[in-house]
Amino acid sequence: MSHEAAGATRPLTILVVDDDIDLLEQVSAILQADGHTVVKAHGQEEGEEALLSCIPDLAVVDLMMEHQDSGFVLCHRAKRLFPEVPVILLTAVRSATGLDFSAGSDEAASWTRADVILDKPVRPEQLRGTIRRLVK
User: Fold this and answer.
1) Superfamily of domain 13-120
2) Where are the domains of the chain?
3) Whose CA is closest to 121, among 98, 86, 83, 94?
4) Are the beta carbons of 91 and 120 closer than 8 angstroms?
5) CA atoms within 13 A of residue 133's CA, in its CB half-sphere
6) 68: which residues sit within 8 A by CB, 6+ positions away?
């Protein structure tokens, strides 16, 4: 489905951070196919460096990278630098552990600082729909 056909937002600059290079490339390819500029970062450290060199319109961050809390830490730093920038956390925690958490409640949103938490593997149409809701 093309960018226009998907009813997607204007072209955005999106920071994508994941320590799994295959998932980093997969999510980046989906977003680039929709006409977005993607700033890729392989892991938390590169993600932090990217936040200092660009102001993204949106960030897509893996939850568990070098450390189990890498995604939370990066999300907090992004929100501290750019509070208006939506952050999507991607996680495989539910499938790996059976634990269920989301940014849907005010309490969860206050400690995760993420706007949305999506389960991996994220479907392209789910990611696109989430981005449309977050960036109008």
Assistant:
1) Response regulator (3.40.50.2300)
2) 13-120
3) 94
4) yes
5) 10
6) none
How many CB atoms are located within 10 Å of the residue 67 CB? Answer: 12
Separation between Cα atoms, residue 24 and residue 65, nearest integer Å: 12
Ranges assigned E (strand) in 1-130: 13-17, 37-41, 58-62, 87-91, 116-119
Distance of CA 101 to the CA centre of its chain: 16
Q: Whole-number mean pLDDT of the chain? A: 84
pLDDT value for 94: 55
* Residue linked to tokens 């700033």: 39
* 19: Cα within 13 Å, side-chain hemisphere: 14
Task: Give the tens place of pLDDT for each residue, 78-93.
Answer: 999 999 999 999 988 6
Tokens of 27: 């999510």
How crowded is residue 68: how many other Cβ atoms within 10 Å of its Cβ?
A: 10
Q: Is 20 helix (H, G, I), strand (E, B) or coil?
A: coil
